[in-house]
Design brief:
flat; single chain; mainly alpha; 169 residues
């Protein structure tokens, strides 16, 4: 199905454009006021709710630590399982995703060097990508040859309207 592009009404005179710009300014002022009200309300809520919420989270952390201590001291309660169902919830240990951790005194650079010396290139990642910024930075020099490697440099000029909001009382 082909979409039909609708044409917006055309503004014929500068006076009509000025009127429309004034309407846009008023809308921007109203939007800014609402945004400031929302930010003020959020700040008030954070100020009111923040301290009690932090206190609750600290108490939760303390109690969780106590529960973990109990679980570590009572492995027989778990049997072969990693979790235990209580009336009020499930507790246990979750198996995380495997990850590599450096041995003491090792660095990733040293690991890389060791893998290279052992000819274990399958464990070494090489990432190649186009350095777009370098091409843009050197556009005056490479400009004539850009088409040979399939790119062109474009620079948009989007339309804008910046309302004068600070003048409004």
């Amino acid at each position: 199905m082909k979409r039909i592009k609708t044409v917006a009404p055309v503004i014929a005179t500068r006076a009509q454009a000025e009127t429309l710009a004034g309407e846009l300014r008023e809308l921007a002022i109203d939007a800014r006021k609402l945004q400031l009200e929302a930010e003020s309300a959020k700040k008030a809520i954070d100020t009111e709710i923040g301290p009690p919420l932090e206190k609750l989270r600290a108490i939760q952390a303390e109690k969780l630590e106590l529960l973990e201590g109990w679980a570590e001291a009572n492995p027989s309660e778990f049997g072969a399982k990693k979790s235990l169902q209580f009336v009020h919830g499930l507790l246990g240990w979750r198996t995380g995703m495997p990850k590599l951790k450096l041995l003491p005194s090792w660095t990733w650079e040293r690991v890389l060097s060791c893998l290279q010396s052992l000819n274990l290139s399958r464990y070494i990642r090489v990432s190649e990508e186009v350095n777009r910024q370098a091409i843009i930075d050197e556009r005056d020099t490479v400009g004539p040859t850009l088409h040979t490697f399939g790119v062109k440099i474009v620079q948009d000029e989007p339309f804008f309207f910046e309302p004068k909001i600070e003048d409004n009382g």
